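Sample A.
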Amino acid sequence: MLYAALGDSITYGYCASSEKARYVNRIQAALSKQERVNMFVRAKPGWTSRQLLKSLKDVPECIWGEARLVTILIGGNDFLKAMPWLLDGNHGRLLRVAGQVQDNLTEIVQTVRSPDSTILIGTMYNPFPNSLVAKECIDTLNQVIGHVATRERLILADVRGRYYGNEHEFVDCYRRGQLRDFRIRNNPIHPNDKGHAAISSVFLAAYRRSLAQTRRTTRRSKTR
């Protein structure tokens, strides 16, 4: 089985203590208990949804034909790069960014989808839960992610829900959960090892629920 993981620095494993501690490697290790799982990671620190989409042009189509599981976790950098305008209360800019992310996510899904693949898309946690501006941005992003998941019939993995109230435990270098905590170095954005474990648990639970639902549907169709 081939597992393809798409994203930005979180998927890349920034701030994880080792490669094995990354959420993608945790998913691979868990699934490998039942069958052999190879992994393909397409992720880079700083990538926006647009940059991820553009990078997919360099991926051989056979990857998507072979991938049975695809996880997508992207979008936070789109809003971070627009933050100077959003801090000024530019709601028009917020809506434009949201629209761009929605279009990019849709195209990403349509690029990687194959008849035999299961695609999971994760909501985004808020590393600055005590900032109203950050909350508005992340809420808007997650509404977009939910809309794309519904329209494209994806499986939604609620990473945000797992992190909510636990940001201080899951985010590396967490301080006060406010935008003024932002730093060039030791920026409190990325998950620590516990955070990566939490993300993997959310994706795995969503994937297993999907498999169970598929089996139930198959059994019902055979009894008719």
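Sample B.
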Amino acid sequence: MPRGAGSQHETQLRRLGDAAMRVLARDGLPALTFRSVAVEAGVSPGRVQHYARTGKGLITLTFRRFRELTQERVRESVGSVPSPTPIDVVEATLQALIPHGDQDRTLLHVAAAVELHALTDPGLAEELRGGRAELIRFLAEQVGREWSGKRSVDPLALSRAATTLLATAEGLSTLALTGTIDGAEAQLNLHTCIRTTLTDFPATSHTEPGSGLR
């Protein structure tokens, strides 16, 4: 195990991030303060302020912890599949956005609350845009691996496919979180969409937006 100031810093960030997520999921975003997180984590408010700096920093810390936990879930899911294909990787990544149980609902409620706040917080919005752009690039890379050898595909087609799949997963997640559909139905719908998209190779790679509209 690594030792020293660096590892201690990361440990504290994880501890505070976990506490902040519990506060936010239980009591809502207005309750997310240095004091409430300090009580939840069993530390002083000054310790929380030292790591988060500001109220906005506390929200960012919370969201980054959500991303870390989601990435861990994806790695575990992919690791459980012998010789995973690109489709397996895409599915594991996107299914992590669908609530499978109470713990998942807590994580995703946190994400939804932070994203709603980002509508009026340019700095946090930039953080979210960066994270989504990174995710779309990763998904596009996996789509390219799945389609490789079938025909040359330009990056725009890959990005569009990745963006569509991400939007589908996020929409299904919202429907599940609000109780419009249950989690199992959302998972099945997402599974079908992924398999259909990645096995149905696009007829053309260079269609401009709106070119098929009259």
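B remarks: Residues 122-147 form the longest helix (26 residues). The radius of gyration is 19 Å.
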